[in-house]
Amino acid sequence: MTLREIQLPATAAAPGQTPGSTRRWLPGLLVLLVTLAVAVLGVLSVATPPDPLPADAPAAEFSATRAHADVEQIATGPRPVGSTAHDRVRDQLVRKLRGLGLDPVVHKELGIDRTPGHTMAAPVQNIEATLPGSDPTGRVLVVAHYDSVEIGPGATDDAHGVAALLETVRALRSGPAPRNDITVLFTDAEEPGLMGARGRLAAEDRGDPDRTVVLNLESRGTSGRAVMFETGAHNAALVPALADHAPVTTSLAYEVYRLLPNNTDFTVFREAGFTGMNFANVGTSANYDTPQDKLANSSKASLQDMGATVLSATRSLAAADIAATGKGGEATYFTLGPLLVRYPGALVLPLAGISVAACALVVWFALRRRAVRSRTLTIAAATVPLPLITAAAVGWAGWQLMTLVRPHYTGFIFGDPYRPGPTALGLCLVTAVAVWVWATVLRRRCGSLELTAAVTCWLTLLTLLTALLVPGASYLFLWPALTGAAGFAASVRLPASSPWRTAVAALPAVPGAALLAPMVALLFAALGLVLAMAPLVVLVLLVALVAAPLARPLARRPLFLRAGAAALAGVVVCGIGVARDGTDSGHPAQVSMLYVADGKGARWVSSGRSAHPWLDPYVDADTAPLAAEFPYLKEPDEWRTGPAPRVEAPAPTARVLSTRRGADGSREVTVRIGAAHGAASQLMLYADTGSGDVRSLTVAGEEWPGGNNRPGVKGRWGWGFTYVAPPAEGVELRLKVAGDGPLRLRLLAKSAGFPEGALAQAPPADVAWAAWDAGFSLVAKEFTV
Predict the structure, then answer these.
(1) Has residue 15 got a pLDDT over 60?
(2) The overall pTM is greater than 0.90
(3) In this structure, which long-range contacts are made by residues 51-56, counting pairs with CB atoms below 8 Å and at least 24 apart in sequence?
């Protein structure tokens, strides 16, 4: 039989073919269509939030329309800790809670972080109120932070969370009293370093971790579904609370979250021994922590999903035995559309063992029946990494090409532009073509069952590896592997002439699509186009489940033409996505730009992570390190710089109040630091560890260790401390210094915005500040004690 004769049945019926010959491929086509439908529905389930309920929705339900009225009052502008806007929102929340019949308390505390590299203190004002339970076994603590970054109004981060808490309290008050206490906590100073949560947990009345479940509301974007992305210990007792209104969730999410440069208030609670769940929406991360996190970009649909989810979970936990949660184990869990699937984590390894045994059994069975050949199966299995590597290469190369065409893409901190959907779709199409080419080429020497067996073996291997290393991810491969083994066994038993043989072998693609397609969409949203290789690698496994049994061998010319046309279509879709994602007033380029000054003069500096012609006249293309003069600017190693006019800006002040000799021979130097010419949002003190040794620092009766507390920092400023929102009268510090020699100190004052008259021309409408290293001023002063 010639190659041409083999390939004819894979296409429409040729002249002279019988209708029965065409119907031979209908089962496979049916499986393909069902797989596509399940994949599309899965993607929509993780990407499409529910419609917001109107203001006249039943009192017991969450209404995003009602809640968004609070967002509009809160997110009128930036409200960083220490600002007048911050104090306005604090007072507003106290009035709102009183209007809801609660008795709020404002806890004035000092948030403290002694972690090396993050040594910090901040005066905070946390707002707490409790809805008493009728017969409490513990409490449900629902948390959101009410401050924002200095450059943006924080409409979703975290005005959405704050508004959702207020609407949740209103809905709960409309019904009977809950069994357990429900406490709402609006934390302060989350943005500079989770300082409000640190201050609350340092207090004596923080509550019992064993009788508290924490639900934290966050945001890392301005749209999309609510995602429950992190849990504390004993999550098997917590996750069932999501069943009545399931968000997007997966036990893999926390494994991914740990790789990202993010912490939330829940991090502090979890490290203090509390358990609970962490929620956020992650769509349109390009707006995150920028001026674009504004009311115009605030999604009521996302607010509805977040609020309804948290209200439902709060009700469920408020009726549970909180004290019993500590007896729960760990769970594997994920959502399939609106359904929450969960099972004990203790089953992960046994199920992985079953999948290994099932795979080995069906391969042995197929070899015994001579349905597959061992040598050809080995060759097929050895080539499976090729499409995986190709997918990673497509993702990496795609981002490099995108940034060449759109240099402003480098300004998005999560590597995702405003409208990534079409580009992601194009990358997926190119990847799918690569998998199809791989399967088609292999079919020249392998049978469809041999290729199917190779894919099943790899899924089984991934099941075992993840069960051992990343248990929360094992389910992604377990169920396709088990159904793959079952489908493979069933297809081996069917006659070679049966039209259902390849279709049955492809059936595992349906559960594969239900699990893997939503994960592809979720990974694109969480990791961005910059890390597109991760979702594309997952996509390879899904496409391989279909391509392995259904692909047919083709001669080189038709293969080249068809693959080239399909790949070109994917590239065109990518091109359309990139072309339509230019800059305008609604989608501005995000640039890094700071005003810095010291005794040597003033400069404009940029991290170089973003590009726009407006920035070029201010900073040169050449780069230079800045950490020696401004220790806060330790990353990146090199900065673009340019001359700036020297104008009056909030500048640091330091006055030595006293010096005395300690019993151990050290010196105790009391210094008052502050700011002149305006208020500073932060004061940063650094010590030259090459000139002397700081043994300790005491502020407001709290002590921080000395030594080198900035691990990995290059240069002389090895010890540092930051005080957030310093009062107008300054802050008194007591330094304990070893020896009699002089100690060089460098003090920085950070303030929001640029000093008046410094910027020759305001940024155009299509330029906005980037989330990091943008829109603030630093003034440095060096002195010796």
Answers:
(1) no
(2) yes
(3) 51/301, 51/304, 52/300, 52/301, 52/303, 52/304, 53/304
